[in-house]
Design brief:
With 448 residues, the chain is an alpha/beta fold. It folds into 2 domains: 6-231 and 429-444, Glycogen Phosphorylase B (Rossmann fold); 236-426, 3-Layer(aba) Sandwich (Rossmann fold). It has 18 helices and 16 strands. The strands form 2 sheets. The protein has a 10-stranded mixed sheet, sandwiched between helices. A 6-stranded parallel sheet has the order 13-12-11-14-15-16, with helices on both faces. Helix 4 (72-85) packs parallel to helix 6 (125-136) and helix 14 crosses helix 17.
């Protein structure tokens, strides 16, 4: 194995409070690269300049509350300045010292450092690289104390490491294909995608659908783009509880009854199609509540108002007639351990998204044997296979009927619970390790 080769992963999302789908992607990618024998380092973001002369002060500064929650006025002044001149001298990254003295609070930034062999920090590199590209039409240079053999940007960011192989993951083209569902700067996004597809050593994506979209948009040669898919690897301790134990956990932690609630996981944003989901759920007449688990995204005000709809108020949950519940409940960001428990205990996962580059919640639900209703659109068809009920996400009536079918048919739920784990095995950590290893060896010119 190429143990001497060093890989640097851009890991901006890993340290974000609350986590993101890309954060999960980075963690899985780091594990896959390590298992192929690569030395894996990470690039994290800082809002403030860190002390370069005193390593301990640099470390303290990274975790300082003033860095985690900086002055928005100061950032605005800096952004306006950099927007005009970019970063012609490059973006400097420094090694983050790990003294072991910082008390572990469970914060994402603390846990992020532990993922990598070495951690580098670059100030505002996401913003500065965007400003530089908009000003000069080329990727900003990342200056490092030690050059990696391969730099892998885990999202669409115009940043490169000179004299290293540079590859970029483009998860999907949602800002272009569904411009009404995002607030992204479409001009920047399209220009950056086209530029990276011309100049990168390789482009990575996470589904055959996204790969086809990127080829159609940019004309990139099929030999220069690879679909690695994603992976799910749920720790055994999170799925080892018996049904009785899990039932007690769900009752105490969430006030829910095992297998007597539906679940949606994801941010509240237009792409997730929650308005149609709420309509379909209301029309289904189910006696079981719908739990919406996820942070606020954008354009969510209507969804929050609809959750308060009187049709969803005051009905008792089946099996708990003595205690009324709201029929639609929203839970904000949950730790991964809580989310998996909630997913295992659900009657079904409802995920009728308009478009997904991959659709990790579908894979996670199938892997723990929870029935899934999802869209017959984008990559979700690839992920779900024949192990889920697929519906047109624009057809509220079809979604209503699917909810009713799963709700009322125990045999169907049992069958989907058997098919799900079998389908999920196609996206195992071992299969992902092989795909990532083949990709990195190809880019670095190493023999298999």
């Amino acid at each position: 194995m190429p143990v001497s080769d060093k890989v640097l992963l851009e890991a901006y999302n890993v340290a974000l409070r609350g986590g993101t789908g890309i954060a999960t992607y980075v963690k899985n990618l780091a594990e896959a690269a390590k298992s192929n024998g690569y030395a894996v380092d990470g690039l994290l973001h800082s809002n403030s300049k860190l002390d370069r002369d005193d390593a301990l002060l640099g470390e303290v500064g990274f975790y300082d509350a003033r860095n985690l929650k900086p002055s928005q006025f100061a950032l605005l002044i800096e952004s306006n300045w950099r927007r005009g001149i970019g970063v012609p001298l490059g973006i400097a990254a420094q090694r983050l010292f790990s003294s072991g003295l910082i008390v572990d609070s469970g914060a994402a930034s603390l846990r992020a450092v532990g993922i990598f062999n070495r951690t580098y920090v670059a100030r505002l590199f996401m913003d500065f690289s965007r400003f530089h590209f908009s000003r000069y039409g080329c990727a900003a240079r990342l200056r490092l104390p030690e050059k990696p053999d391969l730099f892998h940007a885990t999202q669409m960011i115009p940043l490169k490491v000179p004299k290293a192989a540079n590859i970029y993951t483009i998860h999907d083209l949602v800002p272009i294909l569904l411009p009404y569902t995002t607030l992204d700067d479409k001009r920047f996004f399209l220009s950056a995608v086209r530029h990276l597809c011309k100049t990168a050593d390789h482009i990575v994506t996470v589904s055959e659908k996204s790969k086809a979209d990127i080829i159609a948009l940019t004309g990139i040669s099929e030999s220069r783009i690879t679909n690695t898919y994603q992976a799910v690897s749920i720790p055994p301790e999170l799925v080892s509880e018996s049904e009785d134990e899990l039932s007690r956990v769900i009752e105490k932690r969430f006030g829910l009854v095992y297998k007597e609630y539906f679940l949606f996981c994801g941010a509240l944003e237009p792409k997730k199609n929650l308005s149609r989901l709420l309509s379909a759920y209301a029309e289904s007449g189910s006696d079981y509540p719908l739990v919406i688990a996820g942070p606020l995204g954008w354009d969510y005000e209507e969804i929050l108002e609809r959750i308060k709809d009187e049709r969803f108020a005051g009905r008792p949950v089946a099996g708990t007639a003595s205690r009324p519940h709201r029929m639609v409940r929203r839970l904000n960001y949950l730790p991964y351990t809580h989310l998996i428990s909630l997913m295992r205990g659900a009657r079904a996962l409802l995920f009728p998204s308009l478009y997904e580059g991959f659709g990790l919640p579908v894979l996670e639900a199938m892997s723990v044997g929870t029935p899934v209703i999802t869209s017959n659109a984008s990559s979700l068809v690839e992920v779900a296979g024949d192990a889920a009920i697929l519906v047109d996400p624009l057809d509220t009536g079809a979604l209503t009927r699917a909810i009713q079918d799963v709700d009322n048919d125990q045999d169907l739920r049992r069958e989907l619970g058997i098919r799900g784990p079998a389908q999920a095995k196609k996206f195992s950590a071992e299969a992902y390790k092989e795909r990532v290893g083949a990709l990195y060896r190809s880019v670095l010119g190493a023999s298999p």
